[in-house]
């Protein structure tokens, strides 16, 4: 296991990201949120106006960097594959609308609850 190249790549990546998280805190991020996913979520929600805490209402630039870097890496290494099916947006809208329009007499959504969407 210790001679496995992938093991050492994971260890090196972990050390690099851990050091980067510490440096982010030193370079100006709040001390308790170097690379903190829950902090990213709270800051993003504040940037979208979902809460009133003025200290947590900005879109952190490293979050944008993570998303764009992951997308660029997936494209570069040819690992980007759409797996949503034929119409993922339509299916998501159908699911959301059927959950909010479930008839009280039945536990399952009826076909008429999503009449504005075409049937699949």
Shape: flat
The total beta strand count reads 0
Total domain count: 2
CA distance, first residue to last residue: 49 Å
Quaternary status: single chain
Unreliable residue stretches = 104-117
Structural class: mainly alpha
Q: Major sheet: size, sense and barrel closure?
A: none
Q: What's the Cα radius of gyration? A: 22 Å
* SSE succession: HHHH
Helix count equals 4
Please tell me the overall pLDDT.
75
Beta-strand proportion: under 5%
How much helix is in the residues? 40-55%
Overall description:
This protein folds into 2 domains: 5-76, no CATH class; 87-102 and 111-120. The termini are far apart. The radius of gyration is 22 Å and the shape is flat. The chain has helices at 5-26, 37-47, 61-76, 88-100. Residues 104-117 have low confidence and may be disordered. With 120 residues, it is mostly helical. It is built from 4 helices and no strands. 52% of the residues lie in helices and 0% in strands.
List keywords for this structure.
single chain, 120 residues, mainly alpha, 2 domains
Quick description:
The protein has helices spanning 5-26, 37-47, 61-76, 88-100.
Lay out the secondary structure.
Elements: H1 5-26, H2 37-47, H3 61-76, H4 88-100
């Amino acid at each position: 296991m210790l001679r496995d190249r992938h093991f050492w790549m994971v260890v090196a990546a972990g050390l690099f990201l851990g050091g980067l998280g510490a440096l982010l805190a030193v370079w100006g991020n709040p001390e308790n949120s170097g690379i903190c996913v829950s902090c990213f979520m709270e800051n993003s929600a504040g940037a979208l106006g979902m809460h009133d805490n003025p200290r947590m209402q900005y879109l952190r630039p490293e979050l944008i960097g993570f998303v764009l870097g992951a997308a660029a890496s997936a494209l570069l290494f040819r690992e980007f594959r759409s797996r949503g099916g034929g119409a993922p947006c339509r299916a998501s809208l159908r699911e959301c609308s059927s959950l909010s329009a479930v008839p009280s007499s039945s536990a399952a959504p009826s076909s008429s609850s999503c009449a504005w969407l075409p049937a699949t």
